[in-house]
Design brief:
Its cofactor is FAD. Pfam families: Pyr_redox_2, Rubredoxin_C. InterPro entries: FAD-bd_OxRdtase, FAD/NAD-bd_sf, FAD/NAD-binding_dom, FAD/NAD-linked_Rdtase_dimer_sf, Rubredoxin_C. One of its GO terms (molecular function) is nitrite reductase [NAD(P)H] activity. The protein is an alpha/beta fold and about 375 residues long. It folds into 3 domains: about 170 residues, 3-Layer(bba) Sandwich (FAD/NAD(P)-binding domain), CATH 3.50.50.60; about 110 residues, 3-Layer(bba) Sandwich (FAD/NAD(P)-binding domain), CATH 3.50.50; about 55 residues, no CATH class. The protein is about 20% helix and about 30% strand. It has a 5-stranded parallel sheet. A 5-stranded parallel sheet has the order 11-18-12-13-14. The chain has a 5-stranded antiparallel sheet with strand order 23-24-27-26-25. Strand 16 and strand 17 form a beta hairpin. The longest helix has 15 residues. The protein binds flavin-adenine dinucleotide. The site of flavin-adenine dinucleotide has 33 residues, from helix 1, helix 2 and helix 7.
Amino acid sequence: MDYLIIGAGAAGVSAAKEILKNRKKDDKISIFTDENYPFYYRPRLIECLSGEVEVEEIIINDEQWFEDNNINLHLGEKITEVDLGNKVIKSNSDQYNYDKLLLANGSHCFVPPFSGMDLENIFTLRTAADLKVINKAAEKAKKAVVVGGGLLGLEIAYNFAKAGLDTTVLEVAPYLLPMQLDKKGGDLLEEKLKANDVKVITDATTKGFDGQQSVEKVVLEDQEIEADLVLISTGVRSNTSLIENLDIEINNGVKVNSKMQTSNPDVYAAGDVAEYEGEIYGIWPPSLAQGRVAGTVMSGGEAEFDGYVRSHKLKVAGINVVSLGELNEEGDYEEEIIVDNDTYVKVIKDNGDKIGVLIVGQYSEQNQKLADVKR
Ligand SMILES: Cc1cc2nc3c(=O)[nH]c(=O)nc-3n(C[C@H](O)[C@H](O)[C@H](O)COP(=O)(O)OP(=O)(O)OC[C@H]3O[C@@H](n4cnc5c(N)ncnc54)[C@H](O)[C@@H]3O)c2cc1C
């Protein structure tokens, strides 16, 4: 049996590890990545921005590991075509037959149509190669602007500030993390970020960038901000282009069932590229879990993915945030607000039952107990 896996990230490698467990004598496992690094812990790229950690330190399985496990690792080899009829995938240099194929090719950064995108020193962060280029630019830069104040944007900004850059985050919403927080919580998080040398501008509609050769300004609807380094963090999209126009069902991601099977019986998908019950998680733990299911099922075992509950306890730029249940509920609900020692706690109750809890700041033991909600 020839197992081919496109993508050497969380989903692809966790699948390979399951296939290894069921491997028969003549089975071959090959894994392709267009990156030049073997499997690494992608979320920790952010820590590498502040220079505290090197990319080499976040590698989970190095080339030797793949060799030892007799997995053919194709580093720096981009797959450009999938031929479902002949069960072949092609790169610029070669082509490979498969019996079972796993699409674990992840996602890419989405960038809105900003003007001035051809200027130098405007980046997105997805890969170790991106990181190296950003860090090189950051060595000479003084003023960084991060476009997008979501979880990732805030972490990036926090690490730029730690590296000594004058850093500003631009968030289009009226307050930070509107999906996770209410206005008061968002404002408190903003205050705490400011204390960590990160400036925040909310209600900020970015139009584009201006400069001679390299970026010099970020142009907003109502003002301009000086910047010699810009990082855009405005979401990700699944890498579906490889199989567009093929006979496989795609929505925003490649549609899969609970066994990670696509609509083609010999093709599986897992991780950021896969859409399960309308959901693309875009985070590490479900990518690992889906990869494990795909690898098990592809190699003849039994497994099912039954969804993933997102954690409501977050650490945002070093600041604790708990956000759970109903927070901005309309209607006749009781609200209990406690502001204590730099911590904001909001408890929403319906007829005495807690239905939502928000905490920004410290977790005391008492606050931990609050995070037990009925709905
Ligand atoms: C900077 C950053 C910080 C993050 N922080 C967090 C966090 O704190 N918590 C969290 O849970 N998640 C976080 N994530 C998200 C998490 O990293 C992803 O959800 C996870 O890596 C997805 O795994 P994957 O295997 O599906 O895809 P990926 O890790 O993206 O791997 C896909 C692989 O496919 C390869 N590939 C793509 N196309 C081709 C092709 N045509 N040919 C060959 N190879 C190809 C890519 O090079 C890559 O190796 C973060 C992501 C980034 C970028």
